[in-house]
Design a protein that fits this description.
Largest sheet: 4 strands, antiparallel
Order of helices and strands: HHEHEEEEE
Strand content: 25-35%
Helix content: 25-40%
Shape: elongated
Number of strands: 6
Length: 182
């Protein structure tokens, strides 16, 4: 048998073509599948952060005044919403913002224990409008930040953040009392 004849037999032999095609396509299909699973995990974590910020703001907006114990309970309840993500990694902040004739200012601000950021002292990084906080009224601003780490490493990671603004329901301003013991 000549070399040309051997090459012709190899070229015409189709017995292993399916295995070769599968070997070429399988890594791509596995990567697409794992990326879609990872994307769904990230979207679920983002929805949890949105739900947590909305819940924090809603719980505060129902009150006429709150104290350290109330805020502690709200942060504790918020940590249960975050699970199964690690709630100790979440930074949460609740603030009361006042609109004094078009000028927004912070009335009070509290953060969860262990938060890497401090209490809010200005509103420059918030996109507030007079529709959100009418003149001479206040709004509750709940913020959350969570360092998301990728499960499989395809999407990398990043920080999931959310801010929720809501007006008080039963009063124009919610008073915050410090110094109370739980």
């Amino acid at each position: 048998m000549t070399i040309m004849t051997r090459f012709k037999h190899i070229y015409e032999d189709l017995r292993g073509i399916s295995a070769v095609e599968f070997a070429l396509i399988a890594p791509v299909l596995i990567a697409v599948y794992l990326s879609s699973v990872e994307l769904s995990f990230m979207l679920m974590a983002d929805r949890r952060m949105t739900s947590t910020a909305a819940t924090m703001a809603d719980l505060v907006s129902r009150e006429t005044d709150i104290d350290n114990c109330d805020v502690s309970d709200i942060f504790l309840a918020s940590k249960t919403i975050i699970q199964p993500e690690d709630p100790t990694l979440a930074d949460m902040r609740i603030s009361s913002i006042e609109n004094d004739g078009g000028s927004f200012s912070v009335v009070w601000s509290v953060v969860n224990t262990g938060a890497s950021w401090g209490t809010r002292s200005s509103t420059t990084d918030l996109s507030l409008t007079a529709e959100m906080v009418p003149d001479n009224q206040t709004a509750v601003v709940a913020e959350i930040s969570y360092p998301y780490s990728s499960v499989f490493g395809f999407l990398g990671g990043g920080t999931l953040t959310d801010t929720f603004v809501i007006r008080p329901r039963r009063t124009t301003s919610i008073a915050y009392t410090t110094g109370s013991t739980c």
